[in-house]
Write a structure and sequence with these properties.
The protein is an alpha/beta fold. 41% of the residues lie in helices and 24% in strands. The strands form three sheets. Strands 10-9-8-13-11-12 form a six-stranded mixed sheet, with helices on both faces. Helix 3 packs across helix 4 and helix 5 runs antiparallel to helix 6. The longest helix is centred in the middle third of the chain and has 15 residues.
């Protein structure tokens, strides 16, 4: 038996994760007035309400080691092999804490994989892992395969508001843009486990959306056609626009939409939207 576990930054819907039988460990989101478990004690809508009320950007915290110990030991004791992957090790201590939990349990039934990604970049790997599990691959085989697949995920996000990234201090190259180039809608790409400024379109958000759409269309010949995911932080109109374009270009590909959770939204801000997909080896 295999249990796949991820964290709350994967940004797939709860309904989908329940159907896939995947467990999710929440990260923590905190304001000066209190802290909350992402997706359990606070929603994205509630997060932005608190941001407005408190005039404060929330902070996020990695999953504690003992939380991992509790999750892993529960399933190991039931006879499962456990595969865990969550937010990139370059972006959070969560990965390192998972490794420490594995060491503490001294179990060869636990496999820790670096997703090298965030949001539904992780979600794409969740879908792959479940496909491999359902095809009766072993836990080791799945982990080995994910360590190849994690380099095939392409994630890019257009940022409508710069204040969250600037105040959160997540990316120095982005912070340098803030304040002087407010008309720029930067496109952030995740590559090698880190966030990079890919392009800096100026003007309306639609320009940035069209650039992201062109990027995936340019990748059509090498596209992994299992899934394309459009993930957004309460940017429903932008989502509808992108999906309508992608359905024309990729009529036979499963296009999934999802709303970013509180951790991702805490760093990128309302209006952020991304196109995430995988390419073939």
């Amino acid at each position: 038996m295999i249990k796949i576990i991820t964290d709350s930054t994967n940004d797939l819907s709860k309904d989908m994760l329940d159907k896939l039988d995947v467990d999710v460990i929440p990260l923590n989101v905190s304001f000066s007035s209190g802290s909350y478990l992402d997706g359990v004690e606070i929603t994205t809508e509630e997060l932005y309400k608190k941001v407005s009320e408190l005039d404060e950007i929330p902070k996020t915290a990695a999953i504690p080691i003992m939380t991992f110990v509790d999750y892993f030991s529960k399933y190991i004791n039931q006879g499962y092999d456990v595969i865990y992957f969550g937010i990139s090790r370059q972006m959070s201590r969560t990965y390192e804490n998972a490794l420490l939990a594995k060491e503490e349990l001294e179990s060869d039934k636990i496999y820790i994989v670096d997703s090298m990604n965030l949001s539904t970049g992780i979600g794409l790997l969740v879908l792959k892992a479940c496909k491999y599990r359902d095809n009766n691959m072993s836990a080791k085989e799945i982990a080995d395969r994910l360590n190849i697949d994690n380099k095939l995920v392409l994630s890019q996000f257009a940022i409508e508001r710069m204040d969250f990234l600037h105040k959160g201090g997540r990316c120095s190259s982005i912070a340098k843009l803030f304040g002087t180039l407010l008309k720029i809608k930067p496109i952030i790409a995740v590559r090698d486990g880190k966030m990079h400024v890919m392009k800096k379109p100026i003007g309306k958000m639609k320009i940035a959306l069209d650039i992201m759409i062109k990027q995936i269309v340019d990748d059509k010949d090498r596209l992994d056609t299992d899934h394309i995911i459009v993930t957004h932080s309460l940017a429903y109109d932008y989502c509808d626009y992108i999906v309508s374009k992608l359905k024309v270009e990729f009529p036979n590909v499963d296009i999934i939409t999802s709303v970013a959770g509180c951790v991702i939204s805490s760093h990128c801000g309302k209006g952020t939207i991304g196109i995430l997909y995988m390419v073939k080896e």
